[in-house]
Design goal:
5 strands, 2 domains, binds zinc ion
Length: 104
């Protein structure tokens, strides 16, 4: 087992875990259900850890985290062939003429 990722928000760790699961990598959040000593002392920013079960998955998992969590691909804007307008990458169809983007 190897420690792969640390974050203070459990929610974030679980979404990272889901991403890894989609790639066929088994992982778990360490000490998720253990009340940390620090909480009783008023320290709220406790960090949680995500671990992969198989050491062989470590390299693949860190690449996935790097690509999908740390540096998510920016959506590129696209040019509508129908009406010559530029569209934001988040638009699924042209804002002006509602044409879908041409296949690249
Ligand atoms: Zn258009």
């Amino acid at each position: 087992m190897k420690h792969i990722y640390t974050h203070e928000e459990l929610l974030v760790l679980h979404s990272v875990k889901n991403i890894l699961t989609r790639h066929g990598i088994d992982s778990f959040v360490k000490n998720e259900h253990v009340a940390p000593m620090s909480a009783r002392h008023g320290i709220s920013n406790m960090f949680h850890e995500l671990w992969v079960y198989n050491d062989e998955d470590y390299t693949k998992a860190s690449t996935i985290i790097e690509n999908e969590v740390e540096n998510p691909e920016p959506k590129v804007s696209w040019h509508c062939a129908g009406c010559d307008e530029d569209n934001d990458g988040s638009f699924e169809v042209c804002w002006k003429c509602e044409n879908p983007p041409a296949e690249i």
